[in-house]
Design goal:
Length: 164
Amino acid sequence: MSNKKVPGVWDGFKAFLMRGNVVDLAVAVVIGAAFTGIVNSVVKGIINPVVGALGTKSLDGYSSCLKGRCTGTGDSATGVRIMWGTVLGATLNFVITAAVVYFLMVLPMAKYLARVEARRKAKEGTQEVLEVTELEVLKEIRDALLAQQGPGGGDSRPPQRYAP
C-alpha cells in the first residue's frame, strides 16, 4: 500500500479560491455592482429627463395595450399592458454600462497591452538582427581566411603556435 495523501475537500476548495480567474471574477463582480449605482444615476439624472422632454418623465410610463382597453395601474389595472418603456430603460442602462466599461476600461487596457507587446517584439527583432549580423560577419571572416590560403585550400601543415 502507498502512503499517498489524498487531497481533502478543504484543500481542493482553497486551491479553487486561489486561482487567478476566481479572484479576478470576484473583483469584477464587486466593481460591477459599485458601477451599477453610477450608471443608474446617469440614466435617472440625464437620460430620463431627455426622454421626458419628448414625453413622460420616466421610461417606465411608456406602454401599449395588447388586448382590450388598458385603464388603471397596479392591481386595479385592466387589459393586457406591454411595458415596453421599462424594457427600453433597461436596454439603455445596459448600453450605457457597456459603453463606459469599454471606453474607460477595455480600450485603454487593450492599447496598453498592444504597446507592451510591440516593445517586446521590437526587442526580440533587434536581438535577431544582431544574431544574424554576427553570423554573417563570421562567414565573411571565414571566406576571407580561405581566400588568403589560396586556391588549394591551404597547406597541410598544422598551424604554428607562437610562444610569447
